[in-house]
Amino acid sequence: MVKPGEKVKIKVKVNGVQYEGEVPPRKLLVHFLRDDLGLTGTKVGCDTTTCGACTVILNGKSVKSCTLLAVQADGGEILTIEGLGNGKLHRIQEAFSNNFALQCGFCTPGMIMQTYYLLKEKGSEISEEEIRDGLHGNICRCTGYQNIIKAVEEASKVRS
Amino acid sequence: MYPPEFGYFKPQSLEEALDFLEKEDARPLAGGQSLIPMLKLRIISTGYLVDLNPLSSLSFVKDEGSQVRVGALTRHAEITSNTMIKTEVPLLYEASRQVGDVQVRNVGTIGGSVSNADPAADYPSVLTALDAKIVTTSKGGSREINALNFFKGPFTTSLNEGELVKEIVFPKLNGYKTSYVKVVRRAGDYAMVSIAVALRLKEGKVEDVRLSYSGVSDTPYRAKEAEKVLMERELNEENIKKAAEVAASGANPPSDVRGSSWYRKEVMKVITVKTLGDMK
Predict the structure, then answer these.
(1) Which residue of A has its CA nearest to B78?
(2) Chain B residue at shortest CA distance from A137
(3) Looking at the domain assignment, is residue B38 inside a domain?
(4) Fewest Cβ atoms nearer than 10 Å: which of A30, A148, B28, B63?
C-alpha cells in the first residue's frame, strides 16, 4: 500500500532498456516517459483521452499514456516512437515522410505508434475503412488525414 | 494535468480488494478510461485507488449454454475479438466495437463502464435491452441485479459502498435479430443518441421486441410503451413510425454540448424508424 503523498518504486522496460524509478501514484505514464526518462517524442495533446498524441505500445497494445498511471505500467514493456526504428527510420516513418503525411508534426508520433499497432494486428490486408476506423482515436488538425491514410496504405505494403 | 493526490493499493486477491474498499476512502480502478480523466478534471477525488488489474480471475468470457458470462475486468477489445460473443450475443459485440476508439478499447473494461453508468455510454442500453443480470460481490456476499434495476441515475447505480461488479450475465436470445446504432457528433464521442434493439418475428408479426436507448435520459431508457405498440403487430412502416413517436414522447433527453433535448428526440425517431425498418 502506498499512502497519499508517498512514492512507489516501479520497474519498466522502455524501448528495450530497463528503467527503475520512484513515482507518486498520481503520476501519469506520459509524464514518467517525458519528464523522468526524457523521452519527449511522446506528446501531450488534449490531455483528455481524445487526441491520441500520447499513444504508446504497452505490453503489445496501443494505449493513451495520458490516461494511464505510471504505476500501472510497473513490470511492463513499453515501446515509444524513439524505439521504433533502432536509430534508422522505421518503414512507417519512411511512408509518412514519402507521403507528406504531416505538417506541424505534433500528432505524428501518436499516429505512427497507432499505425504500428494496427499493422501488427491486421497485417498487409488492411482496408482503407479499417485504417480510418483504427486511427479515429488520433486527431490531426493540419493534414485532413488523406495523406496519413496514403502513408499507412504504403507502409502496409512494404515488407518489414 | 495531474489528478489530485491519492494513495494506491494493489491487492493480491479479490478478498483483499474488498477488505480495503470497505475500510478506506477508496475507489476501484479497472481500465480507468473514465475514472482517470474524471480525476484529472477534478470532478472526483479519492483517498486511495484500488488497482483491480492484477485480479485476472475477473477477466473471462464463459459460454454456459443458455447464457454467456463476461467478467467485469474483460476489456472492450477482448469482447470485440471474441468469436463466441459475436455469434451468441451479437448486440454486445456490435456495441463493443463502437466504444471510444482502439486505444480506449484496449484498456477500458465492461465492468468499469457499467459501474460508471454514464447515461450516454454504450453498454447500459445493451444490458437493459437484453435483460442482462449484473452479479456483484462485497464483504457481505453476492447479489444478482437485473440491469433495469441497476442504473439509478447519471453515474449512479444500485452498488453499495465497498461493492464491486463481478460479472455480467447475458441471456442468449435465440431467433432474435439485434441491432445497435449510435449517432455521434464526431468519431469516438459518447452517443448523442443510441438505440439497442432485439426483435423476434413470427410469420411477419412481432413476437417480442426490446427497445433501449442511451443518451436520452439520466439512465438507459427502455421504451416499454413503444414496445407495446409493436407487439403482436406487423412490422410495417405505420407501426414503426407510431412506436418511434411513442418512444420519443416518453424520453426526457438532456440539453448539452452534444445536442438539445428537442434535437435528440428527433434523432431518436429517425434512428428508431431506420433501425427497425432495416430489420423487416
Answers:
(1) A61
(2) B101
(3) yes
(4) B63
